[in-house]
Amino acid sequence: MSYVTKFAEGFMGLFQEGAQTFIGWMTSIVPVVLMLMVLMNTIIAFLGEERMTKVAKASSNNPVTRYLVLPFLSAFMLGNPMSFTMARFLPEYYKPSYYASQAQFCHTSNGVFPHINPGELFVWLGIAQGVEQLGLNTMDLAIRYMLVGIVMNFVGGWVTDFTTAYVCKQQGIELSKTIKLAVD
């Protein structure tokens, strides 16, 4: 009977620990995420969809803006998964590469900008807790992770351009490299 009791206590302890963590989030990270989401929606409301369209269209002209600027702006302003919708402004040829870069950016920026990918915030918070227990600064880690991520997201996007070209050639498919928008 003592085994059953200990198991039940341990089982309930798991949920009590989870509840304490949740309450900690409610007084720390949740308000920050909420305020960042309000800021994001305010910026989009001020800019308007037409200006957002122009930014995306201009970003599609070269790899640096396509895989560094556009993923950052769309992730910061729209969050995950809405940031992927900016690909609608890109030519068909660049959509796979944009997706590759954007998917990685939503992960690597989560420590600095938690509103971008709140669904996976628990991963970052778990890592951050271990770093804090070592007496280290979590923002240092978050910034380093984001900076390395930005470089790797760019490389991933650009490499996917070459992969797309290879697959198109192999399959005999030609994807458009020009933008066709109704908002011109």
From TrEMBL:
<feature type="transmembrane region" description="Helical">
    <location>
        <begin position="22"/>
        <end position="47"/>
    </location>
</feature>
<feature type="transmembrane region" description="Helical">
    <location>
        <begin position="142"/>
        <end position="168"/>
    </location>
</feature>
<dbReference type="Pfam" id="PF03608">
    <property type="entry name" value="EII-GUT"/>
</dbReference>
<feature type="transmembrane region" description="Helical">
    <location>
        <begin position="68"/>
        <end position="90"/>
    </location>
</feature>
<protein>
    <submittedName>
        <fullName>PTS glucitol/sorbitol transporter subunit IIC</fullName>
    </submittedName>
</protein>
<keyword id="KW-1133">Transmembrane helix</keyword>
<keyword id="KW-0472">Membrane</keyword>
<dbReference type="InterPro" id="IPR004699">
    <property type="entry name" value="PTS_IID_sorb"/>
</dbReference>
<keyword id="KW-0812">Transmembrane</keyword>
<dbReference type="GO" id="GO:0016020">
    <property type="term" value="C:membrane"/>
</dbReference>
<dbReference type="GO" id="GO:0009401">
    <property type="term" value="P:phosphoenolpyruvate-dependent sugar phosphotransferase system"/>
</dbReference>
